[in-house]
Write the structure tokens for this entry.
Amino acid sequence: MQPTSANTPAQSPPEKPGRWMLPGLGLFQGLAVTGRNMVQSFYNKERMTTVQYPEERAPISPNFRNFPFLVYDGNSIDNLRCVACSICEKECPPQCIYIVLERDENGKSLKRPKIFDIDVSVCMNCGICAEVCPFDAIYMDGEYELATDDRFEGLLFHRERLAKSADYHMKLRPEQASEVIARRKAEEEKKAAAAAAKAAKAKADAESKKAAADARPADEKGGDA
Ligand code: SF4
Ligand code: SF4
């Protein structure tokens, strides 16, 4: 029986004949690239695809990220930018951040962490902590030589281990650090200008009150007395 149009499956159009290629040509092309690299690597360092690790280290990609670190300004860990707001602790998906706020003897917040721990054996390098921090206090590091035979304390990074200077941040990610420094400077200048304007207004108010008091008639002043 002849097939009808109703019971014939849809036919795909016949393929156009492609360019004929010698079987195995791709393999020889790949070998040619490898051979060229091997020969040129003897006199052109850019052709080297490996380095003599650990004496040499290949530069890491600017976008490479590993575990987070805390940033401090100046030369002292006492200048950590972190104010222990705990936003990163709450947002961390595997909950590997532990923060305790430092307080004075009266229980008042000192706006800095007494304890800031990250369990890097649990951290999944997602970078969410760095994204949510409103104080430019935590960023993703590029350090990768972290092998240890102590799988508990050796992989629990405390505040002192996590703290790195703003200069380190600048060397690691110059573009990001420059943008952060410029923004923080602009914010500080804005705050200083607002504080100066407030102080000037308070001074002007005090002077106008004093002038008004001086202008009142003497008998009125005597009445007040
Ligand atoms: S990188 Fe991700 S998993 Fe690691 S501490 Fe930050 S939020 Fe948590
Ligand atoms: S690192 Fe940032 S988000 Fe986390 S506690 Fe410190 S200030 Fe808050």
Q: What stands out?
A: Residues 82-88, 99, 133, 135, 137-138 surround iron/sulfur cluster (ligand 2) (CB under 6 Å). The chain has seven helices and six strands. The beta strands are 68-72, 97-103, 109-119, 138-140, 156-157, 163-165.
